[in-house]
# Entry
Amino acid sequence: MAISSALSIAVSGLASTQRETDTVALNIAHAQQPGYVRREMTVADYVGTNGTIGLRGTVQRQIDTELQRQLNLATPQTTFADVQNRFAGRLDQLMGTPGTSNSLSGVFAAMNEKLQALSASPDSLTARIDAVNAAKRVALNLNQYSADIQDMRTEAEQAIAEGVGRVNTLLQNIETLNEKIVAQKAAKQDCASLEDARDLSVKELATWVDVQTRENGAGQMTVFTRSGLTLVDSSAITLGFDKQGTLSPDTLWNADANLRGVGTITVETNGAPSVDLLAGGLIRSGKLAAYVDVRDRMLVTAQNQMDALAASLADAMQGKDVAGTAVTSGAQAGFDLDLSALQSGNPITLETLDIATGKTKTVTFLRVDSAASLPLSDDATAKAGDTVHGIDFSGGMASVASQIQAALGSAYTVSNPSGSTLRILDDGAAGTIDIKSLTARVTTTAATDGDLGFPLFTDGTGGTLFTDRVDGGLQRRGFSARIAVNDAILQDPSRLVQWQTSPATLAGDPARPNELLSRLANTSFAFGPDTGVVSGQTAFTATIDGFANAVVSHWGMTVSDTQAAKDSQDLIQNNLETRMTESSSVNIDQEMARLIQLQSAYAANARVLQVAREMLDALMRS
# Structure
């Protein structure tokens, strides 16, 4: 080897060793910096254009891109599970532990206990006041449950707003870093620190939305979701969110902006109408999706449960079943039903038998007082399998009969023989159908001189009756926030016992307390799928106490399920993060060992230079 070649190799070796030493020093200095990826220099031989030979080093980030991809996919699932578990846990705490006095079911049990005491001593003023206070406690607890649920929905709304703001910041960061990385790569400058910063932004972005990335040869990264929404390409998109204020049971999400009462996430486009990402189902995981799901599903289900409890409680105290009277007309048979007590929202139920198939069919007619409330869907009641028709009573009984006739068809004969009587007859000699029953569930409106049942609870403190009406919006929605003990009972607790004035009820008559106890214990109600205690379209039938216990159990199981999902996802996340740390983070011991190796290499190259110098000196002296 010529002396000049030896000199060239030694000089390039010193430079390469120095650069690698700088790289190792950089690793050590940034070992604790979040997002820093270890650098490593790869050294290769080169031959210059003038025939010189030497060593050339290239610094590269040591990152496992496949592992990084898996981590970016796992992160949004982990954060989604975490948010779900936190809110489920709070709802579970709110509902209390089954069997305890402060649980949802315990509040109803306390009311039952006070009514039992009143039944034993109906003439006791203390027992009457205690029973009223127990009923008041139930109403106040339902009010508070509803308020707490809506507070959590408002909290989720705020979290979505903050999340959208943070996502926009991260997307802008990635766009800016893309531009710098592309420019520096084009200029053949080191951009490892910029790539670290970009990866760190993507990592945080993955906590909010599910992301995937793709990098082209120029160094530009494209970021998109699994649903196909591009977040960053040549530029970043901007998300919008029309945050609302304090949410209420009536403020719900809807794809129709005119009906929507909560914020929705949109993509702001240049001059074009914004795209609703929630309507398109384009955000499926991460904290944004979790908060949306909590706001629009989990907490709405909890509100539906409270409203169903409040509605059932009011109906149990005041509802009355009116049975039809069997009638015939020639070969036709059916029932007459008195509708004089039917209120807006009260149902009429017709049960028929198909002779050919042997199947029973249930048709429910709901009273409405405005045609604007029509039509109604079958889920207007919680009953499973019934067909629902809204009937506008504003035109009088003749119109009511005509509407029911149109709904049932020619196989039936519907008429209004007199007053408020509805008559429905089968097809007579044709013999294809039989009418099994015709009943109505009506609301008792008076506290005295009416029935043993009475409106113990009202819709608010103004004395408005709860009839489950649908006119002007669903009265049931948010009823748990408004339910209150009837002012007339608060002012005169004796009405819990004295239900008649002529003849006057005896002070010691236990008839009404016993009736209320029986209704609480034995009256069953249908609770629909929107309450979450059943899956699919099956209705859940239970007493008030049974449903209250089912609600408590529901949230206990939900928090158990979400905890299991969180634990499973945490295990995956921790495993991936550990592997990522092992492959990309700085190990101080390894870096120090490498420094010692580089020190030896530097000394060896320096020795070559020294020997070459001595050889050149010897040549010059000869």
In short: The mean pLDDT is 90. The longest helix spans residues 125-186. DSSP finds twelve helices and 21 strands in the chain.
